[in-house]
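ok, trying the design again with the full structure, not the truncated one.
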């Protein structure tokens, strides 16, 4: 999956360079992307936005991939759970040092989105026939969505209260243990 993402990113850079990018004095290529992709609208009380860029040999597949990725981006603005683990190993062998760094992360998004619509879309084709699609999705926060967002915030506040209550009970238990030890 990681190799695919890197390949897709490189292909996107090549696509954009082929579509009129210009070289800078540092040899870097300026990539021309839609303004709404480079600076997407900010989430507000009225709407939530998600953006994406995807490529595929088939135009419809590129469009569907971009819409899916943008929907995930949009949904991640409601609720995202991230798990991460980092390991670092260092080994020294007769003067030569070897180092290994490993990182693993997992992102889980579990929420519903309603009323999502394509606000902007740009489809491009590279000389090799590959299609690149930029998409900006908008989810207006009408009454139903505002109620949904309020419910999510309420659930988060309740979860926080429960966790705080558990932590307080654990603290009380530790204090009671400590008092029992001192009474002996």
């Amino acid at each position: 999956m990681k190799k695919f993402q890197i390949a897709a990113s490189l292909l996107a850079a090549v696509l954009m360079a082929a579509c009129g990018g210009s070289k800078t004095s540092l040899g870097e290529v300026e990539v021309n992307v839609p303004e709404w992709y480079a600076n997407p609208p900010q989430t507000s009380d009225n709407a939530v936005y998600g953006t994406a860029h995807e490529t595929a040999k088939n135009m419809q597949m590129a469009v569907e991939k971009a819409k899916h990725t943008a929907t995930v981006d949009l949904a991640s603005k409601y609720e995202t759970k991230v798990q991460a683990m980092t390991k670092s190993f260092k080994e020294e062998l007769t003067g030569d040092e070897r180092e290994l760094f490993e990182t693993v992360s997992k992102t889980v998004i579990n929420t519903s989105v309603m009323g999502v619509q394509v606000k902007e879309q740009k489809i491009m084709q590279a000389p090799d026939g590959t299609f690149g699609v930029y998409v900006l999705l908008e989810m207006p926060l009408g009454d139903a969505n505002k109620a949904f967002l309020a419910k999510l915030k309420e659930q988060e506040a309740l979860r926080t209260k429960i966790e705080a209550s558990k932590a307080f009970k654990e603290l009380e238990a530790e204090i009671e243990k400590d008092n029992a030890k001192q009474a002996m």
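Keeping the full-length input from now on. The chain has two domains: 2-78+118-140, 142-184.
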